[in-house]
Design brief:
84 residues, 3 helices, alpha+beta, 3 strands, binds zinc ion, three-stranded antiparallel beta sheet
């Protein structure tokens, strides 16, 4: 099951689990659409994997299987890609 992390690892923006606009890699590193496209060019800065749109989870499913609440903020990883 996907963790559905609550924020972008680069810019710390909120990414609600029931909305579009979040991108994840196969390890569920999570980014907003702006960072994924503009800064990271579709590559995860942590593992080098492809970033793809995260599927939404409906409110009913969220009630049974809540999204993760632990925020992961790792702007260094994003800066590394920017200067590479
Ligand atoms: Zn972001
Ligand atoms: Zn990753």
């Amino acid at each position: 099951m996907l963790e559905l992390r609550p924020n972008c690892e680069c810019c710390n923006r909120d990414l609600p689990p029931d909305r579009t606009g979040a991108y994840i890699c196969s390890f569920e590193c999570t980014f907003c659409a702006d960072c994924a496209r503009e800064h990271l060019h579709g590559r995860c800065p942590n593992c080098g994997g492809e970033l793809l749109p995260r599927p939404q989870r409906s409110a009913a499913a969220l009630a049974r299987h809540p999204a993760a609440t632990q925020r992961i903020h790792n702007p260094q990883g994003c800066n590394k890609v920017l200067s590479a």
